[in-house]
Amino acid sequence: MNKTRIVGVFDEENSLLAAVNEVKKEGIEINEIYTPYPMHEVIEAMGKKTRFTTAAFLYGFFGAFGVLAFLYYTSVIDWPINYGGKPTNAFPSFIVVTIILTILTVTIASLFTFSARAAIFPGKVYDQPDERSTDDKFVIVFDKPGVDGNVEKLNAILKEKGALEVYEKELNLKK
Question: Which helix (H) or strand (E) holds 117?
Fold first, then answer.
């Protein structure tokens, strides 16, 4: 479902942050912000919260538990080998393998979680608001129906805060 969006393009980080703060003061909802590199201030200003770190912790916890359970089962219960009179359930011998496989589990599971959450898959056609956001420009996108009668006010705020250009575009974005 395509919607008309208002797109503001900025040349520098500080002018984008000033525009974001001013727009938030006016109560205008921001649809999305695109930056050429990660900016934590933008994520905080938009009020977005993530549970990705919690998911990664849970992947690590269950991955480590699963690896330890597998190692214990194979070396103590299923096929105990007595070599040199050493105990079969010697925990220190499991540590390195557990750490490596836990890291692998967290990495693979986080990759799939991120890909599923971001709806990234091969062959997907993405409607990018402005091609320059992948190079060196900062782009802020507003939902035109969400702005209501404040379009002129929004344009004035964006231009005042240093937007290179403000234009309308039909985009198919989330939200």
Answer: helix 95-117
